[in-house]
Specification:
single chain; alpha/beta; Aspartate Aminotransferase, domain 1; seven-stranded mixed beta sheet; 15 helices; 12 strands; about 35% helix; globular; binds pyridoxal-5'-phosphate
Length: about 425
């Protein structure tokens, strides 16, 4: 690593050892270890989160911003909510467990989580590499940070398996960013290969795993160092709380810098958002399974529709990333809830289809229980590289036949 910022006392949160043996003081202390539990169990039981004071099976929301010290002026629990809060800790424990990571840290949003990685790990004069296409707002923010703080942000075309290697080889690199499958074309990057390339160059590999969730894809097991999610999406799953999260494979010095960045920037969520996230996580396994089954049924049904030029879904055998996707995804649970279609008739038809649906709600975002349809080019703005005929579908947990019938009627009604 090329930059280092000592962790100041005020941004250091109490360690696991600090809490050890003081379970009674820790209001959401797990009753037993969660190690080895299957994802569905970890989710449903919210990692055994309990209120130790009352036995409540749902932990309280810890709204306190500050925490008292004991007679020796030692911390009893957390110090200050900008560093740590028991409501964050409960959700962080579940997400770290699902990703197979050592620790997790919640952020105010996915944007805040992604930005913290770049800000903490890429020094002025350094370099990060990012995909040409991916979640538009975060890629734009990386470019802005690079211009403002004086580091290079070089892009690779995720469709070309050699492009990542070439871009990394172009010079010293601090951070490699991967988003797979990437929003909204669902291009697939080989995570294990990216990890080899990043590590051979001495760089950290971070993977945006928002699209797949840890139920379907676990980047740390494939060699990634950090995993990022917009927890606003499927992890919470109910389109009612904004949060981001980072998970680390190891609680090392790199992680300490990322955590310090969160506290320094104050990029933390509200405790109630963390509590809503923990509540949403309880049904994650069920939601991901149902939404993925619905998405596959929809992808297969739309393939044959005369109004559809192409269906972009990694679960389809004709998708260019299908083989890599199969190799790095737990396809027994599904292929994810996200797909895009290219419609005949360009931007005009696409926007008309989005307005003609009765169940699919024309709105931005992904990963909720309700199905959404979006004309991505409109949202990304005039400089958007997204095809104008593209509609992004975030498939919810409604009945698959109802969803298929809805899109078919919208396509039929807008036929030229
Ligand atoms: C939504 C999203 C983000 C940004 O997250 P916010 O919570 O909206 O800030 C980043 N990456 C992906 C893939 C997303 O879908």
């Amino acid at each position: 690593m090329t930059c280092s910022e000592p962790r100041s006392e005020t941004t250091t949160e109490p360690s696991a050892e600090h809490f050890a043996g003081r379970g009674g003081d820790r209001p959401t202390a797990p009753r037993t270890s969660t190690a080895g539990l299957a994802p569905a169990t970890l989710c449903a039981q919210a990692g055994h989160a309990r209120d130790a004071a009352t036995g409540a099976v749902v932990p309280p929301v810890h709204l306190a911003t500050t925490y008292a010290r004991d007679a020796d002026y030692a911390l009893i629990g957390p110090e200050y909510t900008r560093d740590q809060n028991p409501s964050y800790a409960a959700a962080e424990r579940v997400i770290a467990g699902l990703e197979g990571g050592a620790e997790a840290a919640l952020f105010a949003s996915g944007q805040a989580a992604g930005q913290a990685v770049a800000a903490a790990l890429v020094p002025p004069g350094g370099r990060m590499v990012v995909p040409t296409l991916g979640y538009h707002a975060l890629l734009r923010q990386f470019a802005r940070l690079g211009r403002r703080y004086g580091f290079a942000v070089d892009r690779y075309d995720a469709r070309d398996p050699d492009a990542l290697a070439r871009t990394i080889a172009a010079g010293p690199v601090d951070l490699v960013w991967v988003e797979t499958p990437s929003n909204p074309l669902w291009q697939v990057v080989d995570i294990a290969r990216a990890a080899e390339l990043a590590h051979a160059a001495g760089a950290v590999l971070a993977v945006d795993n928002t699209a797949m969730t840890p139920l379907l894809q676990r980047p740390l097991a494939l060699g990634a160092d950090l995993v990022m999610h917009s927890a606003t999406k499927a992890l919470n799953g109910h389109s009612d709380a904004m949060a981001g999260v980072l998970v680390t494979g190891q609680a090392d010095e790199t992680w300490a810098r990322v955590r310090a960045e969160r506290a320094q920037a104050g990029a933390v969520p509200g405790p109630f958002e963390a509590w809503l996230l923990l509540r949403g996580l309880r049904t994650l396994a069920l939601r991901v399974g149902q939404a993925s089954a619905n998405a596959l049924a929809l992808a297969e049904a739309l393939m044959g529709h005369p109004g559809v030029e192409a269906v972009l879904y990694p679960g389809l055998a004709d998708h260019p990333g299908h083989a890599v996707h199969r190799a790095q995804t737990d396809i027994r649970r599904g292929h994810g809830s996200l797909l895009s279609i290219l419609v005949h008739g360009g931007a005009t038809r696409a926007r008309r289809v989005a307005s003609a649906t009765r169940l699919f709600i024309p709105a931005t975002s992904i990963g909720g229980v309700e199905s959404l349809i979006e004309h991505r080019h409109t949202i990304e703005g005039p400089d958007s590289p997204t095809p104008e005929s593209l509609l992004r579908l975030s498939v919810g947990i409604e009945d698959a036949d109802d969803l298929i019938a809805d899109l078919v009627q919208a396509l039929d009604r807008t036929a030229p």
